[in-house]
Specification:
Order of helices and strands: EHHHEHHHHHEHEEHEEHEE
CATH superfamily of one domain: Histidine kinase-like ATPase, C-terminal domain
CATH class of one domain: Alpha Beta
Shape: rod-shaped
Number of helices: 11
Length: about 400
Amino acid sequence: MITGSLLRWLFGLRWVIVAILAAALPASEHWLGLPVSWAVAVPALSVLALANVAPTIRSSSGGVIRPRAVVAHVVLDVLTISVVLGASGGAANPFSAILLVYVALAASMLPPGATFFIAGLAACTFGALFFVPGSASCHVPGADFASHLYGMWVAFALGAGLVAFFLTRVRRALQERERELAELSQRAQESMKFAALGTLAAGTAHELGTPLGTIAVLAGELSHASADEVPRHARAIGEQVARCRAVLERMRPGATPTEGGDAELATSVPLAVAAWRAANPDVEVEVRSAGSGVVPLGHADVEAALFVLLDNARAAQAVAGRATPIVVEAGERGGVPYVSVEDEGAGIAEDDLPRVGEPFFTTKGVGEGMGLGLYVVRTLLGHAGGKLQIERRSPAGTRIQMTFGGLEASPA
């Protein structure tokens, strides 16, 4: 099948050919001294021009055209051009080379069989031009003049065949390359989907790790808890189970990280810190409030993001051997809600800062982290229109700020 847009190129070529032949007729007569039969050439040229009007209108729809329709147009052009050339000097007319243009056109648009048919037709019509009276008037007579004419025809036939052969091969090679590129593109898309699925699964496993660890700690404490502490531990376990359910719910097709949004930081942040401390009772966390703020995330999402930042802060301080409090600040600055976590841990190397937040990049030791925590947080904030800002503290430590909105809150 051939699209209407390609067929319009054929009609455009036809208009160019009509214009060239219309200018070539008087030039052939006055400058080349070739006899021109105007009574034959003008009607043939008019047929070529009239044949271009109605199909041009029909092709404007841009639909699909069958190859046989294109073959019919090309055959009409070759025969009509041959009549015009025959009426203006025959084979002696140098504009007979125009016939090769249609061979090249057929090779670029039509199947191989149709292309070689057009090449054979062009060779036959060019050979017929030698039998037009007066076609030999510009050739120097001699004993071998007949051989010269045959040589011209053979050269034209070979040229037409070579053009058809090589252009057809080039077209076939390009089509094969397009198919290969399409297959490679499909494989790349499948690989990207597989990698995205793996990242999603790893991120989910990372998010489930903290609440499951909390549940394990609380379950272990139940055996030593007093009767008054059992209900509190049971409620904490229920909260962690609910968080696991929320993490799995985000994997549901069509779910977004912001379902159940509009969490108040003044409420969500202290509750999240309390839940994290239940699994890390030996770490001191100081919560500071800088005003109220509402974010387009659910409480479970705020808690999940804050757990990642607190886990990283705890690990950094453990590496540095410091037990200073981790500072969590939540509020609103300049109309932009934010949550920041500061620690006095080992900090992040200057060269590693640009890569922090990339999937599977971690500054922790081998087997201590998957490098997905900050990536999950960055993705979560991206869905909510927020940003993740990471800064090195002086003399040591890190400050990570989650900004919920299009503006970045300036560091405190």
